[in-house]
Amino acid sequence: xxxxxxxxxxxxxxxxxxxxxxxxxxxxxxxxxxxxxxxxxxxxxxxxxxxxxxxxxxxxxxxxxxxxxxxxxxxxxxxxxxxxxxxxxxxxxxxxxxxxxxxxxxxxxxxxxxxxxxxxxxxxxxxxxxxxxxxxxxxxxxxxxxxxxxxxxxxxxxxxxxxxxxxxxxxxxxx
Length: 175
Known about the structure:
The chain is of the alpha+beta class. The protein has helices spanning 8-12, 56-64, 78-86, 152-157; strands at 19-25, 28-34, 37-42, 45-52, 66-72, 100-102, 108-110, 114-128, 131-143. The strands form 2 sheets. The chain has a 7-stranded antiparallel sheet. The chain has a two-stranded antiparallel sheet with strand order 6-7.
């Protein structure tokens, strides 16, 4: 399909949340902001997360075969999102910037600004152009506090946020 037939505003109507997805391997931990995450089955409960193939978190999730998810609250400050969304874990230790606990699979579960944390074991990885889809079975889930989930729409419209170049929604920066 040609690019002139794709209305970016139409794609923007797809609903997303904003999450910190984490991974760990070989003593290294990292996390990144992600909005391409969803539950895909009920029995067993499985999630799929899309992560850019070049990101450190992707490497750690692939090698460690597990990931954590922290569901962010609407009040999450832009500085926190900036740390996990626009800074590279190869240059800074993002986990030193937040409170977290280590889950049963060894992945960090970020507690700052989290409404809930989820831990999942990877069962399959599917490469899709610039990204990798990690299909994983949930092994634990915990509500941290009540509140309103930060959606990608509110991140963009209320907070004025943009997407980093490796995000699947980077194209929305032009819309």
